[in-house]
What does this fold into?
Amino acid sequence: MNNVIDGGKIISNIYKPQGSVANKNGRDLEDIIEIMLIQLNYEKLTPSNKANLQYHSRNIPLSAFGDRWFSTQTIIGESIYNTAMKIDFVLYDKVKAPDGIIIEAKWQSSKGSVDEKYVYTALSLLKQKGRKILVLDGGGYKKGAIEYLQKLKGIEVFSLSELMLMSKKEL
It folds into this structure.
């Protein structure tokens, strides 16, 4: 990392590896979704309840954790490669989502290999229980990638703004 130094103080960061910027943008997207869920009166699971949810891989009723909750970065099943599938958000609402909702968020602000990762994510989501939502934002993805994902049965694809509009009615 190269910094500009003025009088012994670092005044700017000239170079950041692309991966670190992408990871930060992805976390920012997840932070916005978490704030949205809190504003929708979802309660975040405690670490011990999250551990129980992961340990049992959803073989226990989702209602065991309360009437309206969410969990972040939760392993809920297996991917298409039969490895642990960690989901950005798992939601439960006794009335609106008794089978649960899983939300996976992806940020892509520049062209890259993430388009191929979308297919892995989508097919892995299809193996999971409950409603499946894929949030894609940043504008760097290929148009064909979005079109392909929108044609898949069993997955809903939203931008962040579309998710926010939908959430007021459906979440």
Observations:
- Residues 1-6, 10-22 have pLDDT under 50 and may be disordered.
- The helical segments are 18-39, 47-55, 114-126, 143-151, 160-170.
- The beta strands are 3-6, 9-13, 43-44, 68-78, 84-93, 97-107, 131-137, 156-158.
